[in-house]
Please model this.
Amino acid sequence: MATSLLHLYWLAAKISLFSFGGIYSFWAILNGEAVVACQDAAAVVSKAVTFCRGDYELVLALSPVVPGPQVNVAAILGYREHGIAGMLALLLGLLTPVALLSPPMFLLYRKYRGRIWIERFFRGTSIAVAAILIAFLGAILLRILPGSTRDLVIALVLFTAIFILSYTQRLSPVLAVAVGALAGLVFLQ
Amino acid sequence: MRLFGAFVRIGLFSFSAAASALIMEWIVDRRQWLTTEEFRDKLSLAAIIPGPFHVNLVGLIGYALGGYLGLLLSLIGFVLPGFVLAVVLAVTLSSDTLGRFLVENPGAVKGMLLAVGALLLNVVVRIGRFALPAPSYWAWVAGLSVVLLVKNVHFALVILGAGLLHVLYLRATRAY
Model:
């Protein structure tokens, strides 16, 4: 797996370019683009950058704990490949679209403000983003929902509880993950 | 002044992973660098610029306040604390103790993933309520989700396609 720093950088820039609404878009797209089961040799070779699913899930699980944009945590994946330089490559890749596009967009905005088609376009992309995120959620759930019925019920209860808490009570993400970890440790396998 | 301003971000913005837009509002009110009106402008623009929303917002504000230098400094300041923490995590995860603990206790990881999933659902619902013009749009979301679950369509295609189709669809179905 000879992934170079440039590949990492490019991957992050590509994904960042399309991470429209939602912080988790980044993860969802990353999942589709670069995450494979480690044992799948063919898949590993076919892409420039790949990450093991196990690593990916671990990092994803930790993501709410780290402040700042999600890529900070995703950068951990870069560590395996190229140490801290790898992490930096991912981080810089994420920042590139903003850095390059902000100034021109800023100026253009003044000119094109209020054009209807822009708003419509982005409502359209919101549909896509929501769908991508839901599909991603589905994929996560399918991956981790365990076999036994007892575990399944526990998992669903936990999920619903955390969801309700965070939606209505604005439960802090860090707490949510902590609760999840503890409950999972005790009840799940 | 602008250097200092961007540096303040280092201390302040390193907070909640989600909904840090609230914290930024704090900067507007507290420091008075932008009016609420201007801030809202930035919000809309940040949503439009390709890239993660919060990163965009930070960058835009930095640019508005301090030109290109402001842009760079505010971004660096914003990501720095989290990045440092990430490096720490990366190193400790690679070491035997924590890494092995997590591998040997997959239940904990599953629990955490469930939490992340719940948070994710949270985000989706909020996006939907905020951005979708009418509840009927959820039908489209649902349908598209099912399709995506089954077939891995390239994300750029989906996102751009949806935007484009929406514009065309609205044009076709009512007077502009």
